[in-house]
Amino acid sequence: MLKDLLKRRLNSPLSLSKTILDQLIKGHYLSLYNTALLAEDNANLRIANKKIIKKRNRSTRRIPCTEGLTIEEAIQLAEQLNQPEEDNGVDSHAEVELPSQPIQPARRAPPTCSGCGQIGHRITSCKNRVI
């Protein structure tokens, strides 16, 4: 609209006001473009932040059963774990059967020599090692 008004008023193509107006319009277009890019980046960052917050708040509790479960049993155990605890004297984990033996940590194998293959020493103390 401003360009049309200036065209009617000034017929010279190299007018100073025309170049200034072109620069103003170009700057306005650039600022609108940058604003649109920043708004899109902001929206993408908000979506990514919601995903991170949802992942952080996700429960990391595990179902306390070492043997295999059927789908129905797993769903039932998950529902029991997600229910709020009530003080009626019944534990929500009381129905789950735990193994009767205490869980022992895995034992390491005795050292084996990589030179002679005998158990009981390592290659640094091997008698058959050539120095």
Return the structural class: mainly alpha
Strand content: under 5%
Given as residue ranges, the uncertain stretches (5+ residues, pLDDT < 50) are none
Biggest sheet layout: none
What's the total count of β strands?
Answer: 0
Question: In percent, how helical is the residue content?
Answer: 40-55%
Shape: elongated
- The helix/strand order is HHH
Whole-number radius of gyration? 37 Å
Give the N-to-C terminal Cα separation. Answer: 93 Å
Arithmetic mean pLDDT: 77
Number of helices: 3
Question: Could you explain how this protein is built, in words?
Answer:
With 131 residues, this protein is an all-alpha fold. The protein has three helices and no strands. The chain is elongated, with a radius of gyration of 37 Å. The N and C termini lie far apart (93 Å).
How is the secondary structure organized here?
Blueprint (H helix, E strand, L loop, with lengths): L1 H8 L6 H42 L13 H12 L49
Q: What descriptors fit this protein?
A:
3 helices; mainly alpha; elongated
What would you say about this model in short?
The chain is an all-alpha fold and 131 residues long. It contains three helices and no strands.
